[in-house]
Design brief:
Length: 425
């Protein structure tokens, strides 16, 4: 065995020739601690898959920090660096085993978490914690009422009123999965729901300073009927004015134009785009818009009939066979204030719950109730993280040194008494 320095650090490394290659030898925990200084040209592997080797896949998952399915040198170095903060002495990695001594834990909070777990398991006097002690705790913790992810599920809420609002939040503004995979809400979704509810109810409560032309429902129906045809009716009256301005202007739809449409579309229907593009009716100077189906472009007849029944008759107060442009302007003017208010209506997902229910929810203390539960859940985050870190620490003690002996060097591969990780990979 020989020792020498390598570029990039002052550490003296030991090497042994195995399989015709000089391979670094790990003599103690100090060698492990300096692994980041070792020139990667001297590493015998530069990548390994997370799956398909004999390394425990749960340990491999802890190593694969960016979750790309591979363990790279930077992942190995990061694992050793993490272990330096977790263990008082990295020689424990070389000893292995799936039981970590409590006095070997460097971080006081992690040590306290281990003692708390052992007390809960009825092993208060134990001086070590095993993988069996923590294995599965993460999953049990994840499915608990509060698990530190800041997401509460309907099962987390005890009051029926709180549970009902939670379900309404999830059905309107959405949900997010908690650690156990169950759908729930976090503070952001809770705030979004109540912000939208306040915005919509506030809009409903604004003082309207104009008389509604009809009741709200009928006015909305009239506006929808007008919106469906407004651009086309405006187009018709503009064409008629242009015809008065220029007697020689096209009067479309001319017979030739209609024939072109018929020739180009042998399977023509009222819904055909070609039909939709034709003018509403024959164009002539100062001509009113005919409202009877037999004088209209068939593609628009149904929509004009709806305009007639839901907007023109209710707003003009008389039966109409034709529509003068002046009357059309009257209809638009009557609907304009209502339309402006509708255009100002906030876009929310909570509107479907209705004003009465939204006012009831806003007037209750449910938001505070749910917010308190979310904060209680978040308070468990550190405890949950400690459980995860304890499992990680125990797995690294058991598996990390063996990984190094199959990755940085191939000492296990050349040891006849051992079975290398990569032989199955």
């Amino acid at each position: 065995m020989q020792t020498r320095q390598t570029s990039g650090g002052e550490h003296q490394w030991a090497f042994s020739r195995l399989g015709g290659v000089d391979q670094v030898v790990f003599r103690d925990g100090n060698d492990l601690a300096q692994i980041g200084q070792l020139d990667q040209a001297l590493w015998l592997a530069l990548a390994m898959p997370v799956k398909g080797t004999e390394l425990d896949e749960a340990t491999a998952a802890f190593l694969d920090t960016n979750k790309d399915g591979r363990i790279l040198p930077e992942d190995v170095i990061a694992a050793v660096e993490w272990s330096k903060g977790a263990f008082l002495d990295l020689n424990d990695l070389m000893k292995g085993g799936d039981a970590v001594r409590l006095d070997a834990i460097r971080e006081p909070e992690l040590q306290s978490a281990a003692k708390r777990i052992l007390t809960d398991l009825g092993r208060k006097e134990a001086d070590h914690i095993t993988l069996e002690d923590v294995f599965g705790l993460e999953h049990i913790f994840a499915s608990a009422r509060f698990n530190g992810d800041g997401v509460i599920t309907p099962e987390s809420v005890e009051s029926e009123s709180g549970k009902a609002v939670m379900l309404e939040i999830m059905s309107t503004v959405g949900s997010t999965p908690d650690r156990s995979g169950k759908p729930g809400i976090n503070q952001a979704l809770l705030d979004l729901f109540f912000a939208q509810a306040a915005l919509y109810v506030g809009w409903l409560g604004e003082v309207v300073d104009y008389p509604a032309p009809l009741d709200a429902e009928k006015t909305m129906a009239a506006l929808n009927a007008v919106r469906a045809v407004r651009h086309k009716v405006n187009d018709y009256f503009l064409r008629c004015r242009l015809a008065a301005f220029d007697p020689d202007a096209p009067r479309g739809p001319e017979p030739e134009e209609v024939r072109r449409v018929l020739d180009a579309s042998p399977n023509l229907t009222p819904a055909s785009p070609e039909m939709d593009a034709l003018p509403l009716a024959r164009i002539a100077p100062d001509q009113p818009l005919p409202l009877t189906p037999d004088t209209l472009n068939p593609a628009w007849a149904d929509r004009i009939e709806l305009l007639l029944s839901q907007a023109l008759h209710p707003l003009l107060g008389t039966e109409k066979k034709t529509l003068m442009e002046a009357d059309w302007r009257v209809v638009l003017a009557k609907l304009k204030p209502f339309e402006n208010r509708e255009d100002a209506k906030p876009v929310t997902a909570v509107e479907t719950l209705g004003p009465a229910r939204l006012n009831e929810v806003l007037g209750s203390s449910v938001k505070e109730e749910l917010s308190i539960l979310i904060q209680r859940d978040l308070e468990m985050e550190k405890e949950y993280a400690q459980v995860v870190n304890l499992e990680k620490m125990i797995r690294f003690q058991r598996d990390l040194y063996r990984l190094l002996c199959n990755y940085v060097n191939f000492s296990e591969f050349y040891d006849r008494e051992k079975h290398a990780l990569f032989q199955a990979g």
